[in-house]
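Format is sequence with structure; example below:
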Amino acid sequence: MPTFTLHTPETAPPASRDAMAAVTRKFGFLPNLIREMAEAPATVKGYLGLGELLEQTSLSPVEQQLVLASVSLANTCEYCVAAHTAGLRQAGLPAEELDAFRQGRPLADPKLEALRAFTVEVVETRGRPARDALGAFRTAGHGNRQILEVILAVGMKTISNYVNHLADTPLDRELRAFAWTAGDRLQASPAS
């Protein structure tokens, strides 16, 4: 497994330092994922740029976080599931919905569940969702704009999920309360 450096602003390439500073201002700490990505200024800037664009979509903050978390869950990215669990909580997803999500159970809110299920379908089929999945997404009130916005989020999260898989990114102290492992999905009851 490759060894990745957890850069500080002092050790990072100069072209990554502004991005690192912006992330620190936004979150109040510098996530290990960004510290690793800083090795490649284009990667960290591209990833963060996609995040800024996602914030400009028609998706609400809860929906944005749900899509990002769903990609991460489908890719079993423990780091990003923890990070987006924190994001979902901060965006206001109710605790029972958050627990259901982390355990791989359907969400009670039909529109959010359609968004979660469609996102997972896009990831698992590599962008070739079944017609019934697409139909269910549309029936729940989503349209072409949201389909394209989900694809934007899938692209963004695939970058970070793959970096975390390759780098075995250590979970930040600030995210430890939201730690998740792939085995946590197995806690869902068979009846759910």
